[in-house]
Amino acid sequence: MIINYFCRLKSNLKALQLGSFRSRISTINTVSISKEETVISFLKNCSCMKDLKQIHARVIQLGFEQNRFVVGKVIVFCAAAEHGDMNYAVSVFEKIGDPDAFIFNTMIRGFGKANDPRKAFDYYKRMQERGLVSDSFTFSFLLKVCGQLGLVLLGRLIHCSTLKRGLNSHVFVRNTLVHMYGTFKDIEASRQLFEEIPDPELVAWNIIIDCHVSCGKFHEALDMFSRMLKFCIEPDEATFVVILSACSALGALDFGRWVHSCISNIGHGCTTEVNNSLLDMYAKCGALEEAFEIFNGMNKKNTVTWNTMILGLASHGYANEAVVLFSNMLEQKLWAPDDITFLVVLSACSHGGMVDKGWRFFYLMKKEYHIQPTIKHYGCMVDILGRAGFVEEAYRLISIMPMQCNAIVWRTLLAACRLHGNVELGKQVRKQLLELEPDHSSDYVLLANTYASAGRWNEAMRVRKTMHKRGVQKPEPGNSVVGRHPSLRSDEPLLRIWNIILLAGSRWVAWCYAHLLTGRRFWCLSAPWRSLLNSESDLGSNSGLSGNGENVYPVRLSYQLRFKVRIGAGQQLDLINWKQCRMLYVV
């Protein structure tokens, strides 16, 4: 109740301030100081389009409609403000008799952020037709648009124009060029341009690190971050958010912990964005205890915070805990769930086999929160029903979807048909997939396995032969990243698990030397991608382990690709906590 009271008090105070601001607009033509300065002052304090239109009306009344400085500020608000309106900016622009380069640049900048960025080039063309000189800001805005739209050739042409005009050394142009080539996935060009900068500032470092991350060069991103610190460049919030995303992608828990210590030392740990990135990193690296420490210690949570924590639990096999956390979020009524929240919780229901709760959340999303389900939400429902064996019901759900079903959802249903041996429905689903993606390797494999699960080996072989004749190749399988950690104490109670079969994309068989600690934590010590080994000595020497059987360097694996566990002869199945085994993942 106290929180609600202060929220209402804050809202009323804001409304009072807004009303006072609007009442002062009418006094613009009565103040004793320069009316132009007064208008500019009001434009700087403007917060919404409604206020801007009132100020603009006063601008017209005072005869400033052709004053390029005043009208330029009006257009700046429309182009740069969060709640701006480029349609209104166009109407103001068209009434200016002789717009200067600043106004054209503002229009180009505004359209670069709007829904139709290509219009920025129309204003650049009009700018050239008027004989106005393009400056560094013009090219920076245009290069951003090229990166946005993926216009590689045009981006390079504009790059040539900056070279001809000698603007390539300007800080805005230079940084934008590095970022543009990064969006083109041309990391070599980005790196070359960055290396040509004599003394790169923090913004340039942030851009090149982000380019490496966006291009999937995560190790190089970590190297660039370390190099930045050697040059005594202090990172900011943007740096930490980007570098933590690289740690998440690699499962680099130790590096992520080191970054966390840097954040604590510098003092950026109080912001929600940085805490969300830390939470995401710990969750994806499998350190759920540390993720919960971050989550519980956050004073300012948002919807992204809850989404990340729920996803972390669901991804590591804690589906029930994920649903409970989602229920807590709804009960507190401080954060409204969005479409991603429901996508995450439906995924948790899928992994946990919770069909009834899945339906309840699906209807809750539509009726109470008025969020229209997307194809991804319907895909989660198909997965929930398919995993639980309700393949016919999943097929009916697809038939009543308000949008056209894509290949991913059909493929999800085909996998369910294979799992439950429904050959006839699998054939119908395969026909749908042939119309959408006729040469996708997974479809052939799933259908062949569906026949095989029903004992129809001739049909399975026929599908395999068809796949071979059409030249359909299976994609490259996933790989594993091994990271060492401090050794375990020899006196800790351990259980050795043998004969672990890894399923990662294709059916590769490998040994995994692992120890199961008592309690909730599961340590997987190695997962070498090799053929089946014959002896314990071979396993130790080829798996990235060091030491003897009592002192082993454990390896923590992230949750990107799952693998299953089979216990060999002589082991007791009832000693294994299978919920903990579900936490085993491969990067």
From TrEMBL:
GO terms for biological process: RNA modification. It comes from the Eukaryota. PPR repeats lie at residues 100-134, 201-235, 271-301, 302-336, 440-474. One of its GO terms (molecular function) is RNA binding. Transmembrane segments: none annotated. Pfam families: E_motif, PPR, PPR_2. Keywords: Repeat. The keyword DNA damage does not apply. This is Pentatricopeptide repeat-containing protein. It comes from Populus tomentosa.
